[in-house]
Amino acid sequence: MSISPPELRVAIVGSGPAGFYAAEALQKAAPGVRIDLFDRLPTPFGLVRGGVAPDHPKIKSVTRVFDRIASQPGCRFLGHVRLGEDVSVDELRARYDVVIIAVGAETDHNLGIPGEHLAGSHAATEFVGWFNGHPDYAESVFDLSQTTAAIVGFGNVAMDVARILAKNPDHLATTDIADHALRALRSSRLATIHLFARRGPVQAACTTPELRELGELEGVDVMVDPRDLDLDPASAEQLARSDDRTPARNLEILHSWAERKSSGAPRTIVLHFNVSPVELTGTHRVEEMELVRNRLEADARGGVRAVATSERQRIPVGLLFRSVGYRGLPLEGLPFDERRGLIPNVEGRVVEQPGSTTAVPGVYVCGWIKRGPQGVIGTNKSCAAATVDQLLADVTAGVIQPAPSSQSPIDDLLRERGVAVTSWGDWLSLDQAEQERGAAAGRPRDKVTSVAEMLEIIRTRRTG
Ligand code: NAP
After folding, report:
1. What is the per-residue pLDDT across 60-76, written as a single tens digit (0 to 9) for each?
2. What global pTM score does this model have?
3. Sheet of strand 9-13: strand arrangement
4. Does residue 374 have its Cβ closer than 6 Å to ligand 1?
């Protein structure tokens, strides 16, 4: 769809992939659109900066596309503005024809087992934010003097966590990993990293390249018990009728590992299938984990589910990472679907409550807060384009009528409140500062991990 509405003014909240792709779709379909792209941090790019593993630089190169989008006429970046604190959803709605929420899924799921909150038990998202230098997690501490870690979950985040924990730090030293993480990983004493999947290899949520990478790590043995790869009837059937080649490819890799003998490498990654943690125990911190063996059976929806058996085992664990998926957070002034952890919507149009078809006028969603935390970065492109299609259809139908706002401009409002808003130019100077710091150590960048320091660098570069 392509239209030329009179100066459509759009606020996009969240400058991760979903926010940028929404801006791009608008720029293509509605030339002349004016976009203000907000982020709570002075830095853009969301999970591309704070979530993608540092040893996956190719994935991060998508920021070049985002640079181009941000540089289009009519597009502004307003960094360091917190929705709900510095400005409310209603204040945005009063100043823009359209508000698109693209804030992602900012928290994680719990396991819901006793002992989960013992010291040494962490969310994988916290570890990922920490090694990526996200300011929210710069002060986190992970006790890498432990020799055994466990990761619960078998998705790509679990793969990233296992790989970063196991990898030779010299191979991370040429990446943009946070300096504090590199230092801590250099003194890590971890020798064994267990990965636990509650279902079988056919249901593994990770993609094949990410799984394969574990077996390519220098100084690391990957072990899997061949009995864990014996397929139950429901999994065999699922595999046979799958159009997706991923399970078969994953299985092939796992079988090749099951045949390997230990080489005596300094680190071992042990993969376990069909087990769920039931309890974490320890006096002051996590020391042991109890697991239950699951059997798999077909469920009523054509899937395969795990059912606990009576077989239990305990293993020593000094560090635990739960990697069982992200979850969205509610935003004041907008409805929330507690069950799914997202903002209820119909094809991107925010609706009054889950199951409702009554739209909240002028408010749209895209990315993980729209569809839940699944898919790779590119998935957000079609997701955002679909939302923008609905939005433009609403403009065409007259549901949204672009009109000048009677309210004070957003810049005035934020200035009155003393919000230190940062611009795209500010980000470019911070970006340059990080690259200069990194160059001295032969790294692509040395990330600034505190918002106060970011603002200080920006202030100095503005005046200098
Ligand atoms: P995910 O792909 O949804 O995987 C979650 C894992 O947790 C699954 O193995 C799931 O098992 C398991 N799980 C859920 N609840 C559990 C419970 N109560 N007990 C035990 N296990 C449980 O989520 P993710 O790894 O956080 O990744 C989020 C998205 O980001 C994914 O789409 C992923 O592909 C993407 N991502 C991509 C990359 C990359 O491309 N390199 C890197 C990182 C993330 P069940 O299947 O049994 O539910």
Report:
1. 999 999 999 999 999 99
2. 0.96
3. 75-78, 34-38, 9-13, 98-101, 359-365, 349-351, 345-346
4. yes
Closest alpha carbon to 366 in 18, 12, 11? 18
427 close to 44: Cβ distance less than 8 angstroms: yes
The CA distances from residue 150 to 176, 250, 298, in Å, are: 25, 21, 28
One-letter amino acid of 263? S
107-326 carries CATH number 3.50.50.60: yes
Q: According to CATH, what is the number of the domain 5-105+328-422?
A: 3.40.50.720
Residue 435 Cα to ligand 1 midpoint, Å, equals 32
Any bridge partners for residue 446, and if so which?
Answer: none
Choose the residue to mutate in 48, 127, 154, 157 for probing ligand 1, maximizing ligand atoms within 8 Å of C-beta. 157
Q: Give the residue, by CA position, lying nearest to ligand 1 atom 4.
A: 155
Residue 6 is predicted with a pLDDT of 59
Instruction: Convert the pLDDT of each residue in 385-429 to its tens digit.
Output: 999 999 999 999 999 998 888 888 999 999 999 999 999 999 999
| 373 Cα to the center of ligand 1, angstroms | 9
Q: Where are the domains of the chain?
A: 5-105+328-422, 107-326
